[in-house]
Amino acid sequence: MRANLEETGQAAFSFTTQAEGFWSAAEVWIKKPHVVNKRLCGVKESEYEAVCSEDLGSCLARLTGTHGHELSELFPFIHVYTVDSGIKAEESWCVGVRTIIPKVEPNCNGNVWVKTSSKELNLHPYFLFIILYVIIYLFINISDLIGQAVTFLPIEETREGHVNLKKSNIYKIQLEENTDECVLRLHALSPDQWFSDGVAYPKLSWLTAELLPKLARWAIENKSSEFKSTLSLIPVEKYSVLYQQLKNKYKEMVKVWPEVTDPEKFVFEDVAIATYLLVLWAEERAEKGVTSRQSFVDLGCGNGLLVHILNNEGHPGKGIDVRKRKIWDLYGPNTHLEEKAITPSASFLFPETDWLIGNHSDELTPWIPVIAARSSYSCRYFVLPCCFFDFCGKYQRRHCKKTQYREYIDFISEVSGACGFQTDEDCLRIPSTKRVCLIGRSRSYEEPEGELAEARRTDYIRGRQVSYTSFTNVTQKDHSRHNHHGDGQEIPEPGSEWGSGFQPREKTETVRNCAALPRDLVDGVVLKVARALLELTAEAGEEGKNSSWKDTNNWHAGGSLSIREVAELLDQSTLQTLKKECGGLQTLLKNSHQVFRVEGGRVHIRDWRNGGPVRVNSKPKSQTSGALKTRLCWFHTHHPHGCPLSTEDCLFAHGEDDLRPSTRPLKKLRS
Questions:
Q1: DSSP per residue over 618-644, as a string?
Q2: How confident is the model at residue 3 (pLDDT cuts 50, 70, 90)?
Q3: Positions of the region Disordered (predicted)?
Q4: Is 420 left (phi over 0), alpha (psi -120 to 50) or beta?
Q5: Residue 336: pLDDT above 90?
Q6: Hey, is 149 helix, strand or coil?
Q7: Higher per-residue pLDDT: 295 or 617
Q8: Which strands make up the sheet holding 602-605, listed edge to edge?
Q9: N or C: which end of the chain has fewer CB within 10 A?
Q10: Measured distance CA(646)–CA(628) in Å, rounded
């Protein structure tokens, strides 16, 4: 149920939820509006204060700079209900202020001024005023009717500190509960006078069509994140300004990117990480009262773009990686990169370096807090974990109630604490599912206690290595093999500083995307899975079988199976081979794109009549002319009903006579 907000001043949705769900949804819009409004970078919040009804007017007058009689006109709107004199309402109020921070686009006519004490960030002259929202939380209990509401009072503050309450843009989100259902309402005080710039002041139509349905859905789901809000350790307004500056400065890297990786993702991801570090380091310098830029070493620097940006922005430092990338040659002499295998040892300590960086550093990740702690008492670290590694091999899960990612972040935080760091956790804004970083900026012990701290550190590392070796010996039959995944590692001797379990990755990257698997193994898996799917009826799916489908003239697409059910079809030897590949069985099935469609964790036979590139004459984008008819059609050869497409329409060859030689250049393996 929804009303027309622009005409009536309110819109409503009916659904089932509880008050906790409403507040969970409202907090997303209050604290993280950029999740919904992509033109915002975030908000800066003040402390919220609880006030009684008698003090609400004076509190709002102080925050908004308006007179009491002006605010008194708003009180009927702010209250959830107009209560009859015979009913006593129990009210509790909570009031705070948030500052809207828009994304800064170059050459735009922005109308938001971002306060900042940093003189290193160049604020654009078109920032005119701050947009504040006074957030009023109201909890009210009237008989058996419970109401919750959040009211937004927008205020403009000029550079000179003058404030102006925009009465035309006041709105309220309200939850009404009774025994039958919940109603989520959105009220606008003056819909006929509403002003919108699409950024700080959303359109009424957007609030109705976009925000309210999302709030209703979030209220029902009532999900809480395992991780902190993004950019919780740095000023969001400074991040927003600097990110846009660096994004425009380095966007040309996308055009010259020589690697096989996606330039759009990797360039702007490294720009975002560099922005975070630069703001974090600027705040650190301001706090310590120093001006010299922090030095750094990026361990496992990969493409080196993060190093390139940090060097260009004035920070002395270098990156080290086991393998040189093509793009290194494009950076120039001012970007310092070294091709070298890194082994945690006394040879890889950095006593003169301020910060160590681990950006998706894989097997080095748990060692970076250790290397930082042993380099010097003042050395700090930043690590962005990705792949899950322990000190001497792949990380072994121990807590089934946590997600694997949460468990691994907790493990690295535990390592950091064992190394003597006070550890902070934050979440970056990068195009990646792995975006939680850990930061060690200070120690939990005084510098004279360094020897005792080192003893604790050594005991912890050795304990992990012994535990890992014991665990792998129990869970792996062939634990005597010694390879870079850590199987059957030697237990380090007591007193050994680093242990003997760690081995760096090979200089030549091993292809592990199932492309190098034996052809007969792949063909055998594809045939076995396809036959199992064809034995399932499309209607009954995994529940039933159809014995008469072979006798029908209709082309049969079979049913579907989950990845787990598919795995149960295969022998242990095949599964062990697939486990060594990135993505394992699921990668093999997705690589077999001609035969299978993998969606939502389930495997289906692909029906080329329903979407997908067909028609040779139309030259679909997914198939260049050099690849047409260069492979045999699996369905023509193996499906009982043959291919659902005609010879002319199918991209693949229907028999040897239809096969053409490939004219596509051979792909070079990544190195």
A1: G--TTS-GGGTT-SB-HHHHH-TT--S
A2: very low
A3: 475-505
A4: left
A5: yes
A6: strand
A7: 295
A8: 560-562, 602-605, 596-599
A9: N
A10: 14
**Residue 641 CB neighbours (<10 A):** 15
Other C-beta atoms lying within 10 Å of the C-beta of residue 406: 14
- 379: number of CA atoms within 13 Å, CB side? 20
State the alpha helices, DSSP H only, in 65-171. Answer: 68-72, 75-78
Q: Which superfamily does 236-450 belong to? A: Vaccinia Virus protein VP39 (3.40.50.150)
Instruction: State the virtual CA torsion across 396, 401, 403, 408 in degrees, nearest 10.
Output: -40
Radius of gyration of the chain (CA): 30
For 348-390, the DSSP string reads G--TT-SEEEEES-GGGTTHHHHHHHHH-TT-EEEEE--S-EE
Question: What is the model's pLDDT at position 465?
Answer: 79
pLDDT computed for residue 32 by the predictor: 85
* Helices (H), ranges, 65-149: 68-72, 75-78
The pLDDT value recorded for residue 18 is 59
Q: Tell me which range, 40-44, 134-138, 326-330, is most confidently predicted by mean pLDDT.
A: 326-330
- Burial of residue 292 (CB within 10 Å: 0-12, 13-18, 19+) is exposed
Torsion of CA 340, 343, 348, 354, to 10 degrees: 90
Where residue 617 falls among pLDDT bands split at 50, 70, 90? very low
* Euclidean distance between CA atoms 353 and 318, whole angstroms: 10
Domain with CATH 3.40.50.150 in the chain: 236-450
